[in-house]
Design a protein that fits this description.
globular; 5-stranded antiparallel beta sheet; 236 residues; mainly beta; disordered C terminus
Length: 236
């Protein structure tokens, strides 16, 4: 198994919108690429994401829905992905099923990765959880060498503070909206652990939250095939 390398991370926030644009994201050069888009929002009227598109004005590559979790009509988290996205700098367009209600926020994070398995086993595990408390938690089953990404979205206020508990690492935090309908999102990752990863967050003002997590498998290492003399999988 090879190693997954994390590249560019870009985010965007909005309030009372029917769509959101992540501007100027970079899909980094490399083999076995994956574009992961993580979205958290206050789904006051039970909204959901209908489309996510990479470079709609250019290559126009649609992402695939992976998973979601919701806590009533207060917080919703969704994961979308695209295998082998075109290498370039462009925008990511996110479409919502309806315009979010007044003050309701949305926050999205795009992550470019290289070295990710491009077959049917890209995602070893998908896990979800929800609740109403100050200590969101999520357990993701994994094996050594995989990389785990988890995201938590909570309904909050302008002064909310979110912390990711060690040994997990927070790679991005974004807050969109206002009043009591702010979408406060936090994305964390961990690597090289087994047989499971526990991601924990702390919210200073306990509230409704929804979590999604995935474990990504690395692409196989390239090796020298003695019969064919090229770098690639060890097929005989």
């Amino acid at each position: 198994m090879g190693k997954i390398i994390e590249g560019t991370i870009t985010d965007a926030i909005g309030e009372e919108v029917g769509s959101l644009t992540i501007v100027g994201h970079v899909v980094d050069v490399g083999s076995s690429r994956l574009l992961l888009v993580i979205i958290g929002f206050n789904n006051d009227d039970l909204e959901n994401i209908t489309d996510v598109v990479w470079d709609v004005a250019g290559v126009n590559e649609a992402l695939t829905f992976l998973a979601s979790e919701v806590d009533s009509n207060d917080s919703r988290t969704e994961f979308w992905y695209l295998k082998d996205p075109t290498e370039k700098t462009a925008d990511i367009e996110i479409t919502i099923s309806a315009t979010l209600s007044p003050d309701a926020g949305i926050a999205a994070t795009a992550i470019s990765l290289v070295g990710v398995d491009q077959g049917a086993s890209t995602f070893n595990t998908v896990a979800t959880n929800n609740g109403n408390s100050g200590d969101p938690t999520l357990t993701v089953v994994t094996v050594p060498g995989e990389r785990v990404y988890g995201s938590m979205c909570c309904e909050g206020n302008d002064d909310d503070e979110i912390a990711v508990d060690a040994p997990s690492v927070e790679i991005n935090e974004a807050q969109g909206g206002g009043g009591g309908k702010q979408a406060c999102t936090s994305v964390a990752n961990r690597t090289e652990v087994s047989p499971s990863v526990v991601l924990d967050w702390t919210i200073d003002n306990p509230d409704s939250w929804a979590c999604v997590g995935v474990s990504l498998r690395a692409a196989p290492k390239a090796v020298l095939n003695p019969l064919h003399g090229f770098l690639g999988p060890p097929y005989i």
